[in-house]
Design goal:
mainly alpha; 154 residues
Amino acid sequence: MTSMVNILALVATFFIMEFVAWFTHKYIMHGLLWVLHKDHHQPEPGFFEKNDAFFLIFAIPSAILMLLGVMNGNDVRLFIGIGIAAYGLAYFLVHDIFIHQRFRLFRRTNNIYMRALRKAHKVHHKHLGKEEGECFGMLLVPMKYFWEAKRSLE
């Protein structure tokens, strides 16, 4: 029973992180901490961005939860921490590698979901300022981008 709860906690945390990422992106990155996120919308020279600091903002609680979970007999905190880390890995692969091509991999795709992700993110980045943004999520995108991606392949 405990292992089922742990697996459920990991999967639920991964999916909850999409809402956490959306909320953080919309209200914190495009709000109070715009100073860190601005260079992601208005690129500056160099490989690293101030925006990369958000990696630590999410990685630290994940690491603390994993550490506390291990110190307490691999309790549910370990699996919540792993869920946060798994979402962080997905974010890195989808956002930094696939969408922004920070590493030149996965340049072309005919996958409708991946094309919809790219389009939604492109729409988000058409706004250079912190106001008037749209499409703040990462893995869940509005259906209109799926239809658009499907039409582009026909």
